[in-house]
Amino acid sequence: MHVDPMGVATSAFGGLPTAIGSGRGVIATERQGLAIARIAARQGYAAEVMELLQAKFGVEPRVGPRCGSLDDIAIAGISPNTWIATRESAGNAFAASLHSLLGNCASIADLSDAYVILRLAGPRVRETLAKLVPIDIHPRSFQVGDVAQTACGYMSVMLWRLEDTAERGPTFDIWGGRSLAVSLHQAIGEAAAEFGFVRHTA
What is the per-residue pLDDT across 78-95, written as a single tens digit (0 to 9) for each? Predict the structure, then answer.
């Protein structure tokens, strides 16, 4: 596994299989370099936090477990008055910029090195996820933009429903704690084995 001297290891999945079974029913892409910040509005400041974020990024923070996005920014509601914000390739500077933007209105935690994220797509991705998570992921129930904090085996994960693509079909991001990367990869690979599983690095 290659280690970046400026941060954590560049891949939490180094040394793990990049293909399991036969076929491409599930295609996993490791997301790297994503800046992640948790924003918790302080008491009485939720409306101001939402206004500041929307004015700055053009994304309306959602009240419920939904995600809004524009360009390289995404903001998802994860609990009352609390959001996860991400920015592509922004590093730890993203959380610092949110500190400057929100001041004393919110508490900011930089989680950029806390998670591993696999983008899951392919024609059999729903069948695979149905083996792993206890929520209904039918498109009528779990729609584009929905976010769920749920379980994958014994692991706590976040599942994001993304826009379908013409090339890969239904698409989801699954987040797990970095220390559980191997277990998460194994669980997904085993569930997808009958359909064929391949993993790439973005």
Answer: 999 999 999 998 988 999
Instruction: For helices 46-57 and 93-102, give the axis angle rounded to 10 degrees.
Output: 120
Letter string b/e over residues 109-132, b meaning 16 or more CB atoms within 10 A of that residue's CB? ebbbeebbbbbbbbbbbbbbbeeb
Per the CB < 8 A criterion, the answer to whether 78 and 144 are in contact is no
Question: Could you tell me which CATH class the domain 34-110 is placed in?
Answer: alpha beta
Q: Which two tokens stand for residue 17?
A: 């299989």
Q: Is the pTM of this model over 0.70?
A: yes
CA dist 182 and 116 (Å) reads 10
Would you state the CATH architecture of domain 19-32+113-201? Answer: 2-Layer Sandwich (3.30)
H/E run at residue 48:
helix 46-57
Helix locations, 58-169, DSSP H: 93-102, 125-132
**What are the residue ranges spanned by the domains of the chain?**
19-32+113-201, 34-110
101-160 per-position pLDDT tens digit: 999 999 999 999 999 999 999 999 999 999 999 999 999 999 999 999 999 988 999 999
Tell the residue number behind the tokens 């992921």, with chain if given: 137
Q: How far is CA 139 from CA 2, 115, 136, 144, in A?
A: 38, 26, 9, 8
